[in-house]
Amino acid sequence: MNGHRCAVLSRDFAGMTTSSDSSGLARARRTRPIFTFAAVTGLFVAVLLIAGVIAVGLVLSAPARAVVGAPPADIPAESVSIASGSGATLHGWFVSGRPGAGAVVLMHGVHANRLSMLRRAHLFNAEGFAVLLFDFQAHGESTGARITFGHREGQDAAAAIAYMRARLPGERVGAIGSSLGGAAALLAPQPLDVDALVLESVYSEIGAAIENRMIAVLGPIGTVAAPPITVLFKLVLPPFFGVGAADLRPIDHIVQVRAPVLVAGGMLDDRTSVAETRRMFARANEPKRLCWSRAPAMSISSASRRTNTANRCWASWSRPCGVDAREALSSVLSSPPARGRQRKG
Q: Which of 45, 185, 205, 330 is 20 to 30 A (C-alpha) from 256?
């Protein structure tokens, strides 16, 4: 009797087990396509995102060629060519000044060229300064395969300063870098051999530059999307653009500048934030000065708006900085070479 019960129970249990196994296999068969679809979709989205980041990077780093032409008739400029350590031949204009008045090298922003610096060239030359304005590699009429956000352009900045030193060996030399130009001034292989340095709306590190621009363009969506896309962009920088994120940190280099520094920023600039500009200023050595412009925000793709903002900052020095504008312009290079001049080595 007991044996019969055991046999019945065994058959029932076996039937239950078989039924349970069959049900589990059926569920697995039903859910497997869902998991497969999710995995394929996730992979597709990831590939699409990576491709999108690379495509945007390639667009932003594409050469900004432009036919600049002859110097304007209202400025006594001489066309010059400068060989740079970046491998590019830089094209620019040299404007003679009054002996002993000093010299200024003007460095334009990204996707711009020397034409964006013409107003300041007039301004400084009217004060007696000799002026050099040039196109960075991959900009304007200079050669160069790709924009590198200050990396190779740093070698261009060094070449421009060396040219001015050789051309006017007895003059004090200052440099003004706007956006990319300021980053290049700080990312040069060695601290620039200048007596004064002006940095206008310079990003602190490439991650912040990417995030700020995404938020400015996409708004709330950019706030969410910016952090992961920034991480991805940093990862694709070395293989696709030949430069790493660690090489694009001007804030790590500003501390090496021994010349007087003026750090200028825009109160409404959504590409280089107020907090970012303050961090840059905090890392700079004395003597230094911080100047703010209340001009509209700058655009990474609009050289004219960027130049307008920078020019307003120069013109409004007498208000935020508490000094006369003309006096401030001249005082940029007024420090004796023994105090402000950087020595190589």
A: 330
